[in-house]
Every structure is written in C-alpha cells, then in structure tokens.
Amino acid sequence: MSRRRLLAGLAAVVAVALVYQFALRTKHVAPRLVPTVAIAAIGSGSSAVGVSAEGAVLPRLSPKHPSLPLLALSKPPPSGHLSGTALAQVRVLAAAPAPLRPYLKSSRYGQAGVDVELSTGVELRFGGEGDTARKWRAAAAVLADPAVTALDYVNLSVPGRPGIRGSGHPLPPVP
Asked: Per the domain annotation, does 48 fall within a domain?
C-alpha cells in the first residue's frame, strides 16, 4: 500500500512539473527598456547632471537637452540618489503640467517648504510636497487668469485658496 502511495505522489509531482514547464514555455517575458527622463538638473555647463522623477542622479546630461529647473545643490549626493528636502523638490517638479515645464527655472526648499521659481521671476510656494497635483492645477489657474498680469509669488499651501501677492514680475506667456 505504501508503495502505491509513493508512486501516486511521484506521479503528481511529475504532473505538476510538466504543467509548470509548459506554462513557462508558453509565456514569454520580453525585456523592455524604459528611458529615464531628467526633470531637474544639478550644476551647469559640462558638469551638469540630471535628476529623474524618482530622485536618481543621471550622470550625463545631453547638451541638446532642453533647459531644466536647477536644484539648489552644489554637487550631486555621493549615493547617486536624492533624499530629504531635495527629493521633495524633485517630486514637486515631476508633477508639473507639461505646458508649464518650459517656464520652471529653479527650485529650493524655503522656510515653509518647496518653492519653485519661474523664468519670469514669479515664485510658486508649495509648502509641503503633499497634494501636488491640486497645487499645480491651482498655480495654472492663477497664471491663466486674465485679471492677473503680474505678481511676485503664489502661495499654494492651501490649493483651494491660493494666495497671490505683489506685482513685480510678469506672468509667463499662455501656451
């Protein structure tokens, strides 16, 4: 009787192995290369390096690459990956809507959190990195408002009620 059970168990193992082998042969895993896109830069000129949306430092930045917002860092971290306040800045920049990206000049971490400066000098004050999609929508709405022609900064810490102040800087052109 035990010999029968042993043979039945062995037959079950062989059957499972054959099914598993067949399943592996019929499923193909195709390698897929996903290019890493730089969304910010550290440094300038030939020593500039890019930074991905995940905070990874990209060692080479093509001279043909469009201008990227600069992070206020003197050099890339030795680990090759941003953390802390620099990573918070990158996350905010990565969430920027495509039409606004050409106007992003730089980012820094201010007293209240992430600040993004536009090429016209207008500062977008995000506060913490949370709720960035709503904050970018609020920024776009303020910048597209025809009643607003110039300002110094937009406080986006409460995206439902953005605060605008000043009149010293023109707005970027509407795309």
From this structure: no
H helices of the chain, in order, are 2-26, 84-94, 132-144
Q: In terms of residue numbers, what domain contains 132?
A: 72-170
Q: What is the pLDDT of residues 37-95, one digit of tens each?
A: 889 999 877 788 899 999 999 877 655 566 899 999 988 999 999 999 999 999 999 99
Total structural domains within the chain: 1
- 56 exposure class (CB count in 10 Å sphere: 0-12, 13-18, 19+): middle
State the pLDDT at residue 37.
Answer: 83
Burial class (CB in 10 A: 0-12, 13-18, 19+), 130: middle
In a domain, 12, yes or no: no
